[in-house]
Amino acid sequence: MELLKSSSEHYYYTEGQGCPIVFLHGFPDCPENYKDQLSFFASKGYQAYVPYMPGYHPEDKDLDTYQSVRIAEDMINFIESVTDQKIVLFGHDWGSSVSYVIAGLRPDLVSKLISVSVPHGLSVGTAFLSDAEQQRKSWYMFFFQLEIADVAVPFDDFSFIKKLWSDWSPNWPEYEEYAKSTIDVLSKDSVLSKALAYYRCTFQSELQTERINELANSLLAKKISMPSLYLHGENDGCIGHYLSEGMENFFEDLEVKILPDCGHFLHLEKKDLTNNLVLEFID
Prior knowledge:
Number of strands: 8
Number of domains: 1
Shape: globular
Strand order of the largest sheet: 1-2-4-3-5-6-7-8
Strand content: 15-25%
CATH topology: Rossmann fold
Structural class: alpha/beta
CATH architecture: 3-Layer(aba) Sandwich
Order of helices and strands: EEEHEHEHEHHHHHHHHEEHH
Distance between the termini: 26 Å
Radius of gyration: 17 Å
Helix content: 40-55%
Number of helices: 13
């Protein structure tokens, strides 16, 4: 895959010609792991784009905050720099959180939305306070608030990251190839600290900006308008699939599919199934 740089100074991969479909990755993941999506959707008449999420390339400019709304603004700049057409938007993990904001801020940019592994609405935030099972799964988020995480995560060749992959997609031994690609990205200068900043800016008010907080609050009252598909693995070790219950209240048109025998990284673990479900939805 050839790495390109957009006029908005974002690094990305692309393949194919036709209707644009943009894939936003999560943590711990990277654009290189979307090579199968690039080739699959290119072969089906789409132009697929996979940008580095802000901070995941060592040459990325610093953002004033890494709150999801601010990241979404940055990704909107990327989208507008590579196409003047409406896009299909696919988001996984943090990419899901960001895709919800893009769909809310700029519904004129998105024809259809596919989100994966992180639900939209109040359920996740509420679960951090009241759901013991989800609190246990989300321990790493709270650990990332500590300075020690900057040393502990890369220790022993990022064994921490390998463990997250195996825990979040249990019974999937092929994760190691994808975890290695991710570690290659996170080991670059300043990348890990910015990836951790996504979590720190979520929980630490001193790392947030008033403008972004006001914008985030304004989005809570808006339903996502375009046709949307939500996918979640039944065996997800990161976010409980049951937290997707009630998501339909935040959408005008939503279809939810819980995939059996599948974990958090379902776009990789069950890539053929996931790709075909997405293709069926957008076609």
